[in-house]
């Protein structure tokens, strides 16, 4: 246990698991007054501040003290954003999530209901990693991660790179689903390069936010994006509140692991008949099986071919091992159609979304995938009906360890 004194212009970032008690004075966590807070979950940050100074008891937490924790622009925004759609853009760790959490809490305490859209799929707050999610908030929260999302759109990757169209559709769907007039949108730290510029610009065009907050950690780092916002969009350029970060190596992957655990732990193994459920985010099962091609293709590709299917525009191959790109290219020339080829192992332990009536209702790990038998075994906490399985790109162990990736270009 540690006793800590907090002046009114000081704050502290404490990492859970933690128990914090106010011994004297007043204290807030992410803008919400409290007397005692105890969170056993791992890897969540609590910003503790005080209006008049406080003495605190802190148990079991890694924390750092910071000066001037509440930036002026947080106060200024509070008056301006009720009934507005506000998008937050910034690099990784610029404070997008923190700004949204603090502002949402203060708005809720003032009686303004808030909807949150979390499209930061690499470092999600609201839903599982790799998922665009949204919720309509009624009460203040100590951390978004303590909530369950009301809407999910499964992307299945840590970055929108390679999935720009799905990403735009997912954000749009989440936007269509929210209920409140005040909407705060979190975005990924994907801000540099041609694809990121295009994505951010199109997202702004699509959602038409009333205000876009560009949070810079160093001056000018988002200038290229600010200069490309459509005419008429209101861009506000602010300085990141984040100066020091609690030192915690691997904290980002620890956060993701804790979140995977939240959504995957204590799941059940369910077997799905792939002739009855649709599979998405893959081209598999859109053609006709060509078992007779397997011996010839195995020889040509230099690896045992397990599954072949052909459609008017594509040949899809699942093999035992990796096949050189050159060999695939040669086959494309021969067949005069696109050939997509991957080792069958890339589907083992794949992170997947489970969908019913067009909505993602749960996530899971595909422990086995057998196209010949038409069966997939999925470990998931979701027990409801499923009409589609959405293939992701991350491969995961049962305890949320990332094992590898399925390439964006795989069948
Ligand atoms: N006022 C502050 N002063 C110091 N550190 C802060 C402050 N606000 C937030 N932080 C810390 O900065 C880190 C990054 O903040 P946050 O997660 O909000 O950034 P982000 O831009 O959403 O990052 P990501 O891309 O990971 O989602 C967190 O560890 C958070 O606790």
Automatic annotation (TrEMBL):
GO terms for molecular function: ATP binding; ATP-dependent polynucleotide 5'-hydroxyl-kinase activity; polynucleotide 5'-hydroxyl-kinase activity. Its EC number is 2.7.1.78. The keyword Protein biosynthesis does not apply. Residues 90-265 form the Clp1 P-loop domain. Its cofactor is a divalent metal cation. It catalyses: a 5'-end dephospho-ribonucleoside-RNA + ATP = a 5'-end 5'-phospho-ribonucleoside-RNA + ADP + H(+); a 5'-end dephospho-2'-deoxyribonucleoside-DNA + ATP = a 5'-end 5'-phospho-2'-deoxyribonucleoside-DNA + ADP + H(+). GO terms for biological process: RNA processing. InterPro entries: Clp1/Grc3, CLP1_P, P-loop_NTPase. Transmembrane segments: none annotated. Keywords: ATP-binding, Kinase, Nucleotide-binding, Transferase. Polynucleotide kinase that can phosphorylate the 5'-hydroxyl groups of both single-stranded RNA (ssRNA) and single-stranded DNA (ssDNA). Exhibits a strong preference for ssRNA. This is polynucleotide 5'-hydroxyl-kinase. It comes from Korarchaeum cryptofilum (strain OPF8). The lineage of its organism: Archaea, Thermoproteota, Candidatus Korarchaeia, Candidatus Korarchaeales, Candidatus Korarchaeaceae.
């Amino acid at each position: 246990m540690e006793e800590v004194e907090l002046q009114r212009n000081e704050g502290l970032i404490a990492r859970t698991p933690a128990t914090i008690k106010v011994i004297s004075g007043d204290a807030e966590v992410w803008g919400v007054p409290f007397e005692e807070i105890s969170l056993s979950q791992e890897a969540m940050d609590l910003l503790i501040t005080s209006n008049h100074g406080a003495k605190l008891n802190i148990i079991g937490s890694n924390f750092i003290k910071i000066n001037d924790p509440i930036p002026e622009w947080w106060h200024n925004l509070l008056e301006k954003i009720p009934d507005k759609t506000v998008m937050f853009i910034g690099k990784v760790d610029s404070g997008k999530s923190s700004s949204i959490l603090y502002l949402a809490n203060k708005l809720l305490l003032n009686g303004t209901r808030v909807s949150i859209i979390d499209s930061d799929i690499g470092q999600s707050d609201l839903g599982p990693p790799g998922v665009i999610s949204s919720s309509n908030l009624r009460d203040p929260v100590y951390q978004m991660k303590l909530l369950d999302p009301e809407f999910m759109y499964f992307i299945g990757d840590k970055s929108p790179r390679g999935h720009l169209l799905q990403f735009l559709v997912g954000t749009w769907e989440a936007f269509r689903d929210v209920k409140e007039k005040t909407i705060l949108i979190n975005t990924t730290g994907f801000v540099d390069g041609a694809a990121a510029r295009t994505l951010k610009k199109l997202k702004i065009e699509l959602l038409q936010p009333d205000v876009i907050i560009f949070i810079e950690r160093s001056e000018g780092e988002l200038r290229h994006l600010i200069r490309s916002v459509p005419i008429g969009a209101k861009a506000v350029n602010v300085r990141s509140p984040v100066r020091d970060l609690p030192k915690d190596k691997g904290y980002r992957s620890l956060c993701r692991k804790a979140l995977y655990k939240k959504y995957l732990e204590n799941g059940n193994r369910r077997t799905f008949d792939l002739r009855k459920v649709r599979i998405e985010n893959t081209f598999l099962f859109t053609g006709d099986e060509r078992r007779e091609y397997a011996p010839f293709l195995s020889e040509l590709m230099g690896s045992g071919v397990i599954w072949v299917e052909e459609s008017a525009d594509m040949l899809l191959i699942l093999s035992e091992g990796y096949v050189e790109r050159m060999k695939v290219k040669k086959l494309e020339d021969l067949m005069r159609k696109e050939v997509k080829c991957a080792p069958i192992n890339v589907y083992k332990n794949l992170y997947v979304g489970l969908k019913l009536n067009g909505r993602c209702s749960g996530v899971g790990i595909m422990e086995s995938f057998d196209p010949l038998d038409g069966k997939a075994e999925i470990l998931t906490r979701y027990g409801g009906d499923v009409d589609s399985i959405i293939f992701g790109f991350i491969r995961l162990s049962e305890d949320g360890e990332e094992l590898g990736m399925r390439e964006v270009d795989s069948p």
